[in-house]
Amino acid sequence: MHLSLYNSLSRQKEIFNPIDANLVKVYVCGPTVYDHPHIGNARSIVVYDVIFRILMHLFGKDSVLYVRNITDVDDKIIDRAKELNISIFELTKKTTEDFHQDMTYLNCLPPNIEPKATMHIAEMINIIEKLLVNNSAYISEKHVYFDILKATNYMELSGRSLEQMLYGVRIETNEAKKHLGDFVLWKPASQSDEASANFDSPWGRGRPGWHIECSAMSHKYLGENFDIHGGGADLIFPHHTNEIAQSTCAFPSSSFAKYWVHNGFLTAGGEKMSKSLGNFITVRDLIKQEIEGDIIRLLLLSSHYRKPLDYNKKAVLDSEKILNYWYRAVTNIDLTKLPSIAIPNNFLTSLYDDINTPLAIKIINDYAKNIQTANDQKTKLHNAASLISCANFLGLMTKPANIWFNKKLDNSELINSLIAARYKAKQDKDWSEADVIRKKLLDMNIITEDHKDGSSSWYKKHN
Ligand code: AMP
Ligand code: ZN
Questions:
Q1: Which of 31, 263, 318, 394 could anchor a disulfide with 47, C-beta 3.0 to 4.6 Å?
Q2: 453 vs 303: CA distance, rounded Å
Q3: Is residue 13 part of a domain?
Q4: Can you give the residue range of the structural domain that contains 353?
């Protein structure tokens, strides 16, 4: 079975042939750690987590090297630290820890290597020096700029003209640049910057541009040529376009990444979820609402990774229903009797076809249906084994069914106190308050039944 992936560079689905099947090398642009990740950022992490799992299954666990960086030096970080009146280090350390917690909550595996930009300044300087030596970069007004006219096929990845792309991107007009599209490799320190935001360089104290960070870190851990480079579609231009330009100019025999994979946007009300638009929901927000990580993860995989995916309450409820259905299908199954099976081929085939997770999810759902319609125990067990192994493959259903359902009943303290409050409201003949509490309980899927003697009982509604 072959894995095929849509390559943004060739704009078509291609059979994935790694440069060396003994070590498949993947680089994904990670977070800029100034704030909690929103669920659009999480979509990107979850998508590449699934690709990581597929590659490990195909090539072997020790034959995949997955590098995902942390951008811990950036203007947004400097500004946020100032705003919060804390040091940059304090901000990036805490945000990175929170990011890790959030991604663990979504059952994402850690990458093999997670390099931090600030630990790779020497490597960045090294590449910039190469670019200056071979004239692909120039110094102007204390900045070092990349000269985009020196790059061959500069616009190949985006497939658009530079004019079209520059039109949509915020580019500072700057007389120091030879060309409007030239971008910063190194910029000088600003007087108001905290010392930790700046580093010594042959061009004075300052800090690197964002794009050079990924060129330096991918080169250090994966070499001049590697297999897959991923990130959200918003990174195609200018970030990935500039990474290609720098890396191939600094290492002229290199073709940099062979396959470029880009995930589509998570939207809210049809618009890209983003910090700048303010229409974002963080993973933290959902954790606070006690929405299980599996539910968010299933939601993020429910649409094909290249298509837009709209986030809304109904989508969360739908994902919860699906997971409840899967879990319910195996609640009465004796898991000690499950046959040991290989991951079913039709399920794998769906994922190998450019990561068709909607189809993979449908296949899991069919196993749940089959368990319910099967007449004999053997068929039930076989379908249950298939269901669990496929769901686990996608990083779902990682809890046993009783814990999944009990966890919800952990709310029982809250439920009991609401029932007691409602009982009191009824005693006080405060019917509107009693109704408000009933509605609250209903929102938690708790149905209350009033008895003639004034007492109430409750049960959990199954979807
Ligand atoms: P950032 O921290 O903004 O650099 O984003 C980190 C990663 O999340 C990048 O790969 C972005 O392309 C991706 N990303 C940001 N917003 C969204 C979104 N709304 N939907 C999907 N991916 C996104
Ligand atoms: Zn990057």
A1: 263
A2: 50
A3: no
A4: 313-404
